[in-house]
């Protein structure tokens, strides 16, 4: 049995966090599994994430996910 301690912080689902920080749900799961984002695991795939954790990623200068590939350079 999981006992959640009372908190005044708003908890978000993985989908809400993904939409908020602009990544896929899979990337949010990866961040949680890697310990780069804190959350509360409810069951096998369900997590609740404090809003402050998502806001940490919004405050970062760099992007969270893998950078997009560059457009091919045309040589002269």
Describe the structure.
By secondary structure, the chain is of the alpha+beta class. The protein has helices at 14-21, 25-33, 51-59; strands at 11-12, 40-41, 47-50. Helix 1 packs across helix 2. The longest helix is centred in the middle third of the chain and has 9 residues, at 25-33.
From the structure above, extract its key features.
11% strand; 3-stranded antiparallel beta sheet; alpha+beta; 3 helices; 34% helix
List the helices and strands and how they pair.
Elements: E1 11-12, H1 14-21, H2 25-33, E2 40-41, E3 47-50, H3 51-59
Antiparallel strand pairs: 1-3, 2-3
What is the compact description of this entry?
With 76 residues, the chain is α+β, with helices and mostly antiparallel strands.
The oligomeric state is single chain
Q: Briefly note the structural class of the backbone.
A: alpha+beta
Q: What order do the helices and strands follow?
A: EHHEEH
Low-confidence stretches: none
Main sheet strand line-up: 1-3-2
Please state the average pLDDT score: 79
Say how many strands there are. Answer: 3
The CA-CA distance between the termini, in Å, is: 66 Å
Helix content: 25-40%
The global form is globular
Helix segment tally: 3
The biggest beta sheet is recorded as: 3 strands, antiparallel
């Amino acid at each position: 049995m999981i006992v959640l301690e009372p908190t005044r912080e708003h908890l978000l689902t993985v989908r809400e966090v993904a939409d908020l920080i602009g990544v896929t749900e899979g990337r949010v799961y990866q961040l949680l599994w890697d310990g780069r984002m804190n959350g509360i695991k409810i069951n096998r795939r369900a997590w609740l994430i404090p809003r402050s954790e998502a806001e940490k990623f919004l405050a970062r200068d760099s992007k969270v996910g893998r950078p997009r590939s560059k457009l091919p350079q045309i040589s002269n």
